[in-house]
What does this fold into?
Amino acid sequence: MLNESIRFLDDRLYVDNVELGALGDQFGTPLYVYSLRRIAANYRAIAAAFAPLGAEIHFSAKSNGNLAVLETLVKEGAGIDAVSAGEAYRALRAGCAPAKIVFAGVGKTFAELQWAVEHGLGWFNVENELELEYLNRIASQTGTRIRAALRLNPDVTANTHPYIATGHGAAKFGLTADVVDAVLARRSSYPHVDITGLHLHIGSQLGDTQATGKAVDTAVAIAKQHDGITTLNVGGGLPLAYDPHSQLPSPHEFMDVLAQRAAGFQLLLEPGRSISGDAGVLLTTVLYVKHQGGQRIVIADGSMTELLRPALYGAKHAIVPVAARGESISPAQIVGPVCESSDVLGRDVPLPALAPGDLLAVLDAGAYGMVMASNYNARVRPAEIVIETDGSTVRVARRRETWDDLLLCEV
It folds into this structure.
């Protein structure tokens, strides 16, 4: 979806003050382009929405781990939510204070936990009882104290795609309410771990606030039965309108739900796509056009190896030509070169006549794009370009891989 940073001027698509077509010519395609100005603005808007509750905002690095993006948000005052030690390492490299990093994840290894404790990460979102034992042992050996939140699985089904729903009873995430109660009742078994918070995250791209309210009610009820639970981490899930006609709740509506239920608790939030999603585009070049099976098939150099979301769970992204035309519009299937039938970036996309060499922009690609990119079919991953917050300065934030890069780890 177009916005203040990504829009058409004189029938040409721009990211802030930079014409996308010129970037394609200069850096080649496929190419990710991010507006750091838009990312900063989205962060400020969310921080302002939850400011009345004194909430701390931690950007979810799994949505976009580019160092330039993380550095921009750290400078804005954001903390970082990391679901692996690798993401936490990137957060540290981006200048984030260890105390402002939340270490989450359903399957942290002992080595990851040890590294995180040694580097002073601020919060541990615990999802397994054995994980608590590991943390207590590491803290005892290192002479440190650890601040932890138990991740509650509230057995709530969110209004979202089943692949990104994480709070229902059959999900692999979190601890059931009875286990959380039992662990809190025997906190003395973990003398080196301060269990002072509850964490919940019921899914991404939440379609309403009802499930969030129900999950928070469950968490608050448990917290009030145990002294010392002062923090609620309500995760992320704030949605992004990939379809401009969709009716999705705003950050202020989520804030209202929390204000009604979580008074008196320190709140943490972990938004991701709502900050970076609409700040990025994937630029791709048309390679071939053919007509078969009653369809117009446009083969581009961008594919599921650059943007997996459409193939993974049928996600839909608007796709537009970087040079607008007034020609007749008809449906096109935008596909990539990968040897999989699921390698489709967009189905029945309304587009004008296209020819080899034309540039297309896949919009709202700033979240769960490059972080999911792969080298399948021995394809090199694309470059990432950022437009600095001044709106005009162009910088290569990550160079395009080469064939030699594909062999670097082989022995």
The first strand starts at residue 6 and ends at 9. The chain is about 25% helix and 25% strand. The radius of gyration is 22 Å. Residues 278 and 364 are 4 Å apart (CA to CA).
